[in-house]
């Protein structure tokens, strides 16, 4: 008998790999007018749209009844002023869908050479990501480029896909085209794929599918925290409070400065033993975290032996819709130290309140 979710895992890996090849090639060719600013002032590129079109196409072929909660929508692409951007997205998506990664691979999605998808079909496929989410049933959640700002600066970004069943993450696949394969060789080969299935562990492969490694977060004894732990945090101060993290770091007496990195690559690094803790605390602007920004990363961390919760110690709730509800931040770490980090977070929170 095959393992639970083995089909979903194969399809998700194929979809994420294909999107990573696309985003990688887009980065090298990206020109100025290929980026838009969304209503929330965040950037979105032809790469984000095309990657969502590719992954949604593959998911829709493989699992036609599964709804998708995806970050992007085609509305900004449909305006007359976006016509050249729109053509570029269609061209990139068709190119990526027809690219044979292995013999017969593209025909597995019913999209052989020459069988291009029309503009209308691909825009509609992007909008298959508009599902509202919720408590029950099967659904996918997709961030075609997580960390678009990192992507634009040539830093870390991730292609992130997760399968939720009754609001529990069952499968997570994250592609990190710019992440070094071996953390001890930061200038060495880049491009990693991270995969977790509930109850089946977490692993890292290269983007081309070689060199599998089982992931496990090393235990740190409480008395070693100050010397052995460092934080993984956002580059963008608007996404996560650097000042709050710095106070938590002081409370724990951490000797090492935080590592700043864009995207869910932070969860991937944590899962393979880097840093030791990921802290993301609200900046006070009322932002609600999105399920696609945490679903695959959270499973990767727990399957690698870590723990994740909000700053109150409550589990993240993926069943509330497209976002995680009121923002109490995210605290992820190895199981042995997550309670210590949470206690320091609570202390820093109380100090902040008493000052207010
Ligand atoms: N004010 C905010 N607070 C927290 N996260 C945010 C905020 N604004 C955007 N984001 C999201 O944070 C994620 C990147 O996180 P990180 O800083 O860890 O790289 C992105 O998905 C980004 O959304 P978007 O995709 O719209 O840019
Ligand atoms: Mg975005
Ligand atoms: Mg994101
Ligand atoms: Mg994104």
UniProtKB/TrEMBL annotation:
UniProt GO BP: sulfate assimilation
Binding site for Mg(2+): 71, 143, 145-146, 293
Enzyme Commission code: 3.1.3.7
Keywords from the UniProt entry: Hydrolase, Magnesium, Metal-binding
Span of the signal peptide: none
Cofactor(s) listed: Mg(2+)
GO molecular function terms noted in the UniProt entry: 3'(2'),5'-bisphosphate nucleotidase activity; metal ion binding
Catalytic activity: 3'-phosphoadenylyl sulfate + H2O = adenosine 5'-phosphosulfate + phosphate; adenosine 3',5'-bisphosphate + H2O = AMP + phosphate; adenosine 2',5'-bisphosphate + H2O = AMP + phosphate
Enzyme class: hydrolase
Family: Belongs to the inositol monophosphatase superfamily.
Listed name of the protein: 3'(2'),5'-bisphosphate nucleotidase
